[in-house]
């Protein structure tokens, strides 16, 4: 019975992926027609990994049809370090065995039930319109397990002012500190390419996000807010991976490009 369900899922996925490719080639924004399978209500995604792989890895590399973001764009699996954002976010090795994730927001049995917190990313960042299914969660957990745990921490600890709740008092302190720094636009350009260009660059692969190098109507405070708290599809950046000086440099680059 389990094998039949698995085959049904793979068949539905293949049909959905082919439909997305066909629609994209015609320049249409319409959704792919639904199939008469158990995956009828799932969000359509397109496959982007063209290497021989397991179903779990294929799913990890699939792009959201809502904004073209994949789990693999931000999280490393040991083979995608060429994607610049993987430097800033937690890798997935051993993610199914962690005691907690999102700084304790998800813990215990919920870690595995949410595929290491992937269900939260699925809706908050990938903007999928229906929840991740149990079959999809199982695929991700299986892929995590296939990578082994190695030296991966059972809990990934980091500094942030975004969790467990947004600390507005600390944000104001950060904003004031960054405003006192002199940003280097040349260094900021390099940092922007690594930390921001996937979503906001001239050749950005992500859809439905503002091009802040063309029409940014903000300042250093607003940039700091988005980097430290995140906003919409944008995740927050950890304190130890993007320093105040680096935010000042990125801000200097953005403001220079926008003539401010």
Account of the protein in words:
By secondary structure, this protein is mainly α. The protein has helices spanning 2-25, 55-61, 71-74, 109-113, 118-124, 134-146, 168-179, 185-195, 197-200, 220-229, 244-257; strands at 45-46, 63-64, 100-101, 106-107. The strands form two sheets. It has a two-stranded antiparallel ribbon with strand order 1-2. A hairpin with a 4-residue loop joins strand 3 and strand 4 (106-107). The chain is globular, with a radius of gyration of 20 Å.
Quick synopsis:
The protein is mainly α. The protein folds into two domains: 103 residues; 90 residues, Orthogonal Bundle (Cytochrome Bc1 Complex, Chain D, domain 2), CATH 1.10.760.10.
By oligomeric state, this entry counts as single chain
User: Which range does the strand content fall in?
Assistant: under 5%
> Which spans of ≥5 residues are poorly predicted at pLDDT below 50?
1-51
Distance separating the two termini: 63 Å
Q: State the total count of DSSP E strands.
A: 4
Give me the side-by-side strand order of the main sheet: 1-2
Mean pLDDT: 81
Rounded to the nearest angstrom, the radius of gyration is: 20 Å
Task: State the domain count.
Answer: 2
Q: Helical residue percent?
A: 40-55%
- What structural class is derived from the secondary structure elements? mainly alpha
**Helix count?**
11
The shape is globular
The largest β sheet comes out as: 2 strands, antiparallel
């Amino acid at each position: 019975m389990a094998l039949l369900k698995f085959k049904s899922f793979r068949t539905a996925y293949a049909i959905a992926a082919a439909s997305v490719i066909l629609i994209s080639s015609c320049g249409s924004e319409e959704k792919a027609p639904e199939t008469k399978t158990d995956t009828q209500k799932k969000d359509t995604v397109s496959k982007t990994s063209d290497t021989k792989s397991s179903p779990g890895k294929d799913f990890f590399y699939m792009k959201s049809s809502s904004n073209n973001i994949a789990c693999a764009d931000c999280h490393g699996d040991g083979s995608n370090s060429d994607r610049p954002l993987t430097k800033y976010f937690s890798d997935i090795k051993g993610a199914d065995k962690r005691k907690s994730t999102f700084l304790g927001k998800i813990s215990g049995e919920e870690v595995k039930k949410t595929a290491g917190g992937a269900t939260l990313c699925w809706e908050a960042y990938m903007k999928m319109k229906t929840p991740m299914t149990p079959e999809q969660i199982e695929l991700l957990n299986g892929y995590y397990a296939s990578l082994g745990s190695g030296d991966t921490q059972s809990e990934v600890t980091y500094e942030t002012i975004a969790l467990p709740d947004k600390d507005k008092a600390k944000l104001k302190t950060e904003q004031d500190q960054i405003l006192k720094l002199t940003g280097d636009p040349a260094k900021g350009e390099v940092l922007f390419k690594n930390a921001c260009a996937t979503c906001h660059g001239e050749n950005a692969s992500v859809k439905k996000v503002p091009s802040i190098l063309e029409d940014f109507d903000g300042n250093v405070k607003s940039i700091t807010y988005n980097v430290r708290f995140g906003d919409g599809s944008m995740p927050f950046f950890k304190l130890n991976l993007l320093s105040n000086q680096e935010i000042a440099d990125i801000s200097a680059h953005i403001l220079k490009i926008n003539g401010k």
